[in-house]
Structure formats: structure tokens, C-alpha cells
Amino acid sequence: MRLANKNAIVTGAAKGMGSAITTTLAREGANVFLTARDVDALNPVARQVIDLGRQAFVAPCDVTDETQVKAMATKACEAFGGQIDILVNVAGVTGPIETPVQNVAVEEFDHTINANVRGTFLPIKHVVPTMIERRSGKIVNIAGTSGLRGYPMRTAYSASKWAVRGITRTTALELGRYNINVNAICPGIVETPRMEKLCHEKARARGWTYEQVYEEYVQDMALKRVTTIEDVANAVLFMCSEESRNITGQELAVDGGWDV
């Protein structure tokens, strides 16, 4: 197993990509500390981790609240006996959909930036000291292909994902001397309830059908198929394993060729 005896924290572990990443890491040997705002939604995922023969710990946490994040990091450190090997930052929001920049409410813009940027920064800030002390660690941030190119009608979301790339590259430079790898996975459109919401909102705004919007996405991809949560989880697994030991400060697009 590629992650035998490793301990991981996954934020936003309750649903979609977060749950798939959690169970994939566990399947490869990692014990997992699962965190999200909705603890009830975390419990079924934690049970899957336990069924795989790993340890699972659950704690509520709003990743935009520094007091909660600091407490979460402390609990994880205690649960794992001071050994935190992996941090995967999944928690985030989609922000305004199909909205021209002049129509984006400043409150919605701030909420998106806060959730996606501050929500990536704070877990890193409070988990890194443990990794530095042990001179080892893997940090994987979930960015997005909208942070690799412009994304019309998604100003807040695109801006937040560009910022996640900035955090990734800068912390990679800072932490490399401590044998800590920091990378980002950039999913494109992923087959989740969030994608359904996105397609429905676009269809409503354009006067299209859901199927027309979905097909537009498919046709924009070189491989003509939508990314699955397993595709993303497998990419995260690679970045958490020793197979990526000499990769840091990089962004791996998992998007079927949308950004080509």
C-alpha cells in the first residue's frame, strides 16, 4: 500500500470529491482525520474508512474560522500522536454562477474568496508546524482549471482558484527545505451534484436545456468525457505518495483536456 502507516487530514471530506479522496487514501493505507462543517455527513464516510481497516476521526470545522481550524489541527495532532503526514484541502464553494462581473454582489465575491482562499491558507498555517518538526509532509490543494485560464461569468470562483495556485507555489518554495511537498490538483467539470447545479443554473440563465449545457462541456474536452470524483482522488493519491517525491509547486489538471 502506497500510504501504509500514514496519517492524513482531509477538509471538506463529507461529499463528492472529498469523500472519494478520503476513501482512496484509506484504501491505500492511510488513517484519516475527516473535517467539514456538517459532522453528520462525515459519519458515513468515516465508517467506510473504518471498514477498510483504518482509523477515522471526525471533527466539525469551518475552515474560514481560525479558532476552529487551530482547534482542529490540535485535535488531529493529538489523535495521530503528533504525526501528520498529509493535508488535503478540499473544502470550498462554487460562488456566483453565470453572472457577469458587473452583477456579482460584493458579499458573494467576498464569501467565495473567503471560503476558497482563506479556507486553504488556514489549514496549511496550522498543520505545517507539525510537518516542519518532523521534516516531512505532503500538502495537496484542490484548485481548478478556472485558475489556469479565464472563466467567463465566474469572476469570484476563478479569482479564488488563481489565488490557491499562488498559495501552492509560494508555500512550496518556503517548505521545500523541510522535505514538504506542496502541489495542487486542478479538476475541470466533475460529475457531482455541484456540476448538476452548475448546468441547471447555466441552462436557466441561457434559456437552454440541461442536456445542451452538459454537452457543451463535453465537446470542450479533448477526451469528450466528464471527469469523475475517482479521477480526482487518484491524482491526489499520486501527489500524496512517494511516487511524487520530487514534484512540488505544481498544478496537475484533471479535466479531460478542457484546458489544452
Q: Averaged pLDDT, please?
A: 97
As laid out across the biggest beta sheet, the strand order is: 3-2-1-4-5-6-7
Instruction: Look at the structure and give the CATH class.
Output: Alpha Beta
Radius of gyration: 18 Å
Per CATH, the architecture is 3-Layer(aba) Sandwich
Cα end-to-end separation: 33 Å
Order of helices and strands: EHEHEHEHEHEHHHE
**Beta-strand content:** 5-15%
Largest sheet features: 7 strands, parallel
User: Which structural class is indicated by helix and strand composition?
Assistant: alpha/beta
- Return the domain count: 1
CATH fold title: Rossmann fold
The count of DSSP E runs of length 2 or more, i.e. the number of strands, is 7
Number of discrete helical segments? 8
> What is the H level of CATH, i.e. the homologous superfamily?
NAD(P)-binding Rossmann-like Domain
The helicity comes to 40-55%
Low-confidence stretches: none
Principal-axis shape equals globular
Give me some keywords for this one.
260 residues; Rossmann fold; 7-stranded parallel beta sheet; 8 helices; 48% helix; globular
